[in-house]
Amino acid sequence: MIRLTDRQWERIRNHFPEENIPDGRPGRKPVSTRRVLEAVLWILNTGAQWHMLPQSYPNYKTVHRRFQTWCRDEVLRRVLTDVANELRDRGALDEEECFIDATFVMAKGGGAEVGTTKRGKGMKIMAIVDRHGLPLSVSTHAANHHEVRLVQLCFDFYMIEAKPGNLIGDRAYDSDPLDEELRRDGVEMIAPHRANRIKPPTQDRRRLSRYMRRWLVERFFAWIQWQRRILVRWEFHTQNFLGFVQLACLVILFRQF
Question: Which of 21, 57, 110, 247 is the right S-S partner for 39, CB 3.0 to 4.6 Å?
């Protein structure tokens, strides 16, 4: 069984609305939000179907309904933003040097934002992590979009106020227009040039040495994919799958306290 510690729950409980039923109204009393969240974390970790939720947790229909409400109202995004900013205030997050990349996820449940690629139908999880490999932004997009076009959309899900000083990516992010766009926002893009590049080189080789630490973002994807519900997208609604990705990031950030 998966249980939240009292410290973890007290840190985030104010973001989760409790269901209230008047005392005089007949029927069952609402299930506590903490038990519902623990049930969702069990689904995230095991990748099981909703109806396979153990009897030690609340009814799976209740858990599924409340989880969909959280995703629709962006409750999980606010929780993740609050925890990330608290860690930054403590000095646990360092946005001066960040890394960006995407990973492919098969989509078996259909729905919106599913793109067709050579690997099949699926979507991309875009992520920006700090120099410690901790998430600063996570978002999901159709897999048939090029990563260069998704960078600014990824910043729409940025969790802290300070933009990264240096943003490091692989050859997929070798784009002069992207470099100029990010530079106007105070972000310096560092990415090695493609082998078939025709234009003159623009990257400083000394700054490209930072590229050697790009394994940090790959490790982040390995961390979240320990949560089996993220390996394949079974959710029809895009916001529900994004909610599971955000919960996986929350599990990572909780380890820093």
Answer: 57
